[in-house]
Amino acid sequence: MADKKVALITGAGQGIGKAIAERLNRDGFAVALLGRHLDKVQAVADELNQAGGDAFAVQADVADQQAVFDAVAKVKDHYGDFNVMINNAGVAPSDPIESVTPEQLDYAYKINVGGVIWGTQAAVKAFKELNHGGKIINGSSQAGQEGNPNLTVYGSTKFAIRGITQTTSKELAPDHITVNAYCPGIVKTPMMEDIAKNVAKEAGKSEEWGMEQFAKNISLKRLSDPSDVANLVSFLASDDSNYITGQSILVDGGMVYR
C-alpha cells in the first residue's frame, strides 16, 4: 500500500480541477490528474512534482466508460492504492431553451452525467479490489440547486448529479464508500468566462456587463476563486467528513439558500 492517500481528479488541466489538485497535494495526497488532453494535465503534474508534490497524469475522455476504467486501473497500479475519486470534469453549454439541439444535449449528458457514472463505477471497482472503502466527490453546481435562465441543458445535468449523489450514497454505504457533491457558484475559470461572454452576447452587451450580472446577485459580492471550491473538496476528501454522505454542499458566496 502507498504511504499516502491517493486521489484522482477528472478535468484537472485547468480551473477548479487544477485548484483541487493543488490543494490535495498540499494536504498530503498523491494526486492523479485526468484530462482529455494529456499535455494539459501533464503540465499541471510537472508543476506539482517540481514543487515537491506527487502527481501523475493520465489521459481519458470521461464520456468513454472503458477509458475511465482503464485510467483508474492505471492510477491504482501506479500508486498501489486508491482512496478518493473526484468527478470534476464538465462542459457548460449556455443557450435559451428554444435553441437547444439534440447534439448539444447528447454531448453535455455524455460528459457531465456519464462522466460521473463511469467515474463512480470505476472507483467502486478499485475500492473493492483493494478491500477498503473510499470517497466519491462529484462536481455539481449552484445551477444544480436552482434553475438559471439559458442553462436548461447544463443545469439539468447538474441537478442529475445531485440525484446520482443521493442514490449512490445509499447504494454504496454498506461498502464504506461515501458520496458527496460540491456545488460551486460562479467561479473565475476559463469555462465561466465563456458563459459570461455568451450571456452578454445574447443580451447585446459587453463582456464586463456579463460578469457583473453574476457578481451582483452574490451576497459576498464577489465571484469565487477556484481555491474557494478546492477548500470544500479538501474537507470532503479528508477524514473530517467521514460521517457525511449523500450531500450536495453549496460553495457559492450566498446565491442559493437552502
CATH architecture label name: 3-Layer(aba) Sandwich
Mean pLDDT: 95
| Helical run tally | 8
Number of structural domains:
1
Shape verdict: globular
For the termini, the CA-CA separation is 41 Å
Task: Summarize the entry for a quick read.
With 258 residues, this protein is α/β, with parallel strands linked by helices. It contains 8 helices and 7 strands. It catalyses: (S)-acetoin + NAD(+) = diacetyl + NADH + H(+).
Q: What is the topological layout?
A:
Blueprint: E1 6-10, H1 15-26, E2 30-35, H2 38-50, E3 55-59, H3 65-79, E4 84-87, H4 102-129, E5 134-139, H5 152-172, E6 177-184, H6 190-203, H7 207-215, H8 226-237, E7 248-251
Parallel strand pairs: 1-2, 1-4, 2-3, 4-5, 5-6, 6-7
Helix pairs in contact: 1-8, 3-4, 4-5, 6-7
How would you characterize the overall build of this protein?
The chain has 8 helices and 7 strands; from the N terminus they run E-H-E-H-E-H-E-H-E-H-E-H-H-H-E. With 258 residues, it is α/β, with parallel strands linked by helices. The protein has one domain: Rossmann fold (3-Layer(aba) Sandwich), CATH 3.40.50. It has a 7-stranded parallel β-sheet with strand order 3-2-1-4-5-6-7, sandwiched between helices. Helix 6 (190-203) packs across helix 7. It is globular and about 55 Å long. The chain starts with 5 loop residues before the first strand and ends in a 7-residue tail after the last strand. The model has no long low-confidence stretch (mean pLDDT 95).
